[in-house]
């Protein structure tokens, strides 16, 4: 499919062509975490589930530096393609590769060096730190592979190859699903086996993605004569990628507060409460990743049409994306509220952990349907090159609302207050995102449309 189709074909067909492969790829990515948790819970034990939950904030923090490059590079390349500037789009690909390698070496190396103090800071206890350490040591050693795979896979989708990007994600998860039970149950490698299966899957997909950008048959590929480090491109990558970076950093900070609140108010069951959050978080992230798949499919459509000045197509893409996002999280609400025990039993046979998860599901998912709308609007601003608004919406949910709730509500309702904090912050973040979008559409987009109509 030609990149020029982004400005000509119907929005519905484009969303199907770009979002469906992106959704499949995002689901495959989330299955990494779900498969790891299921095999670890059943093959190692409930305390290992708690140890894995402790790694969430650290993995979010490491991923933040990767997504900064991946999201920024994908958005810029789409905008350049909309402007028919193929040479600059090639510069972006070269720059993303270099930045991924540099970031992974620095972040992975420093984190590995100070791993134990970081894990204790994030809420590990003497009972859970051994599991968290064994898992993260392997993951961190594979950081360069993961960074290059994720960074280039986002560019593959943005430069007109959504199906190939989907296939690379499927390759990684299939390899993981095959190797994880072999490493955990057959070879008895425990939680390290789960991590090794994850890295192995990423390595195979890494080779696939690298081969695509080395082939001259690809419309945008590595070119030695193009710039490998351009100051102007790096600055734009960081500027646009700052939104997902801060979102992941905030998620890291928030999970620290959640883990500590669960340990403080969970009493003797504190570690198992953290494990319950691990199960709930894996579940909610599954549906969030599906919505992210929609926004990833929207990104090249929005970026191209924004660069080409087709503002009505931008608005149509946004409206369609919002309805799809809400439908996805509404489905998540129905399943999680209706079948909490069924979901929990996928991860563990421990009845105490299942009981704690049930109560968490009941409260956490109260307002979940509106989450899809908030995610789509936040990512919309990132895709049209307005990172400050995207950052603002990310910070309102993660910092302005959730952390104060986590400090206040558990004092009133204990562990239930932790779950209620997440539901309350989701609803307020949804309201703020709607107000922000209304303001931007009325005061900014309308002005651009008037300018464009005068040119015609």
TrEMBL record:
Instruction: Name the Pfam families on file.
Output: MatE
**Keyword Transmembrane helix on entry:** yes
User: What GO MF terms are annotated?
Assistant: antiporter activity; xenobiotic transmembrane transporter activity
The residue ranges crossing the membrane are: 12-35, 47-80, 92-115, 135-155, 167-185, 191-215, 236-262, 274-295, 316-336, 361-377, 389-413, 419-440
Protein's membrane topology: Multi-pass membrane protein
UniProt cross-references to InterPro entries, sorted A to Z: MATE_fam (IPR002528), MATE_MepA-like (IPR045070), MATE_MepA_subfamily (IPR051327), MdtK-like (IPR048279)
Q: Tell me the GO BP annotations in alphabetical order.
A: response to antibiotic
Key word Cell membrane present = yes
Q: Which domain of life is it from?
A: Bacteria
Q: Which UniProt keywords apply?
A: Antibiotic resistance, Cell membrane, Membrane, Transmembrane, Transmembrane helix, Transport
Q: Where in the cell? A: Cell membrane
Gene Ontology cellular-component terms listed: plasma membrane
Q: Which family does it belong to?
A: Belongs to the multi antimicrobial extrusion (MATE) (TC 2.A.66.1) family. MepA subfamily.
The name under which this protein is listed is: Multidrug export protein MepA
């Amino acid at each position: 499919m030609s990149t020029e189709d982004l400005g000509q074909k119907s929005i519905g067909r484009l969303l199907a062509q770009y979002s469906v492969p992106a959704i499949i790829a995002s689901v495959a990515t989330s299955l990494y975490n779900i498969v790891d948790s299921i095999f670890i819970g059943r093959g190692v034990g409930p305390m290992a589930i708690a140890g894995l939950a402790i790694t969430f904030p650290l993995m979010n923090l490491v991923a933040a530096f990767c997504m900064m490059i991946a999201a920024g590079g994908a958005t810029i390349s789409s905008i350049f393609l909309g402007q028919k500037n193929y040479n600059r789009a090639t510069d972006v690909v070269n720059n993303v590769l270099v930045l991924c390698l540099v970031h992974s070496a620095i972040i992975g190396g420093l984190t590995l060096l100070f791993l134990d103090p970081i894990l204790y800071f994030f809420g590990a206890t003497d009972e859970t730190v051994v599991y968290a350490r064994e898992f993260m040591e392997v993951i961190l050693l594979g950081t360069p592979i993961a960074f290059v795979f994720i960074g280039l896979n986002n560019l593959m989708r943005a430069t007109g190859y959504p199906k190939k990007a989907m296939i690379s994600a499927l390759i990684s998860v299939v390899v993981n699903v095959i190797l994880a039970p072999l490493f955990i149950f057959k070879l008895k490698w425990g939680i390290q086996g789960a991590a090794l299966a994850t890295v192995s899957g990423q390595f195979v997909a890494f080779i696939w993605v690298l081969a695509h950008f080395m082939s001259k048959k690809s419309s945008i590929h590595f070119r030695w004569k193009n710039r490998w480090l351009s100051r102007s491109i790096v600055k734009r990558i960081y500027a646009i990628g700052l939104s997902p970076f801060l979102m992941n950093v905030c998620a890291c900070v928030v999970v620290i507060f959640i883990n500590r609140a669960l340990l403080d108010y969970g009493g003797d069951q504190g570690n198992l409460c953290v494990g319950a959050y691990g199960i709930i978080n894996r579940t909610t992230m599954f549906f969030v990743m599906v919505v992210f798949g929609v926004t990833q499919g929207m990104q090249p459509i929005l970026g191209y049409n924004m660069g080409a000045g087709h503002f009505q197509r931008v608005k149509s893409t946004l409206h369609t994306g919002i309805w799809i996002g809400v439908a996805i999280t509404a489905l998540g609400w129905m399943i999680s509220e209706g079948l909490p025990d069924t979901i929990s039993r996928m991860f563990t046979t421990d009845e105490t952990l299942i009981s704690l998860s049930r109560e968490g599901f009941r409260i956490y998912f109260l307002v979940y349907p509106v989450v899809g709308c908030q995610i789509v609007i936040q990512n919309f601003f990132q895709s049209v090159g307005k990172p400050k608004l995207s950052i603002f919406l990310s910070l309102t949910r993660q910092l302005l609302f959730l952390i104060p709730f986590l400090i206040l509500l558990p004092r009133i309702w204990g562990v239930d207050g932790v779950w209620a904090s997440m539901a309350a912050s989701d609803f307020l973040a949804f309201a703020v995102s709607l107000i922000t979008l209304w303001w931007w559409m009325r005061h900014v987009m309308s002005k651009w449309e008037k300018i464009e109509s005068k040119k015609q």
